[in-house]
Amino acid sequence: MNKDEKTLNPDEGYEHYRFVATAGQEPLRVDKFLHNFIQNSSRNKISLAAKHGSVFVNGEQVAANYKVKPGDEIQIVFEYPPYEHLLTPEDIPLDIVFEDDQLIVVNKAPDMVVHPGHGNYSGTLINAVLHHCEYLANDPKRYPGLVHRIDKETSGLIVLAKTELALSALTRQFFYKTTSRKYYALVWGNVEQEQGTIRHNIARHPQNRMQMAYFPEGGEVGKEAVTHYKVIERFQYVTLVECKLETGRTHQIRVHMKSIGHTLFNDSRYGGQKILKGTTFSKYQQFVKNCFELMPRQALHAKTLGFEHPITREFMEFDSELPPDFQAVVEKWRGYVKNPITQEDDNQ
Q: 72 an active-site residue?
């Protein structure tokens, strides 16, 4: 950075990103480290940010070639606020399951991002809720507060707080694990046990920063994660399961089910977009590809959601149907079980 350039104080600027290097972090250039973490980024842009004094490690400006060490706190700070803080109301249809003056429960459609962020500054659930709750958009001190999230491709129930009181009350419930959350997932393979519990720590994958990975329970790497599952229906080569979350880690169900050998159907990030079980018959291969086209996302739906209302203290529980794409794939597999593809079919 040139002497004439303005020195940016992280306490005066706007923090866009913050990461803390794990205990097992090997020495790595900070521009490469940030590139691994930030979606749709380039090392060139990160190096330029460092050149302009916007990259900080432990509160001190660093150059792009700084080597990140375990425990380092890395920030990217600019003079302008992140785009996700510049929230704009957008007229996007919402499937509202419940609403009062404290909160709103929405059945989120697949492929909708929950919150604006890098690469997704519009078309999100927050943009839609701001338009629906116009008074939130008009008062900068009020906003729809997120207390939990679901992935872009995952469909299903999510609750947002309309007031500080509701945000605080719901956040406590999620923290102390008093909420009830059940998901339906279609996974590869015939799940052997009718029900079970998966206990693996979850942390960022050490090689692929776009994935999460599982680690031994109680170990130093990752955070505790617990998923209870039970079989709903079997379809020979895939299984419909219900997953009840005891914790809420990033990609928890996707990682946990893969850890026991049952990757989510069509989960491209974790390898489920390949035909992992079944026959080599060409008609079977085409059948699965047709299913992929019907539901071009991981087969995961947040089916039920329960929590205590922040004012009435009543425990409220909501249920949602599988969305059309998910239901269509389930129906196709039901049909397959009744009429499985044989060698004779393949030769016709």
A: no
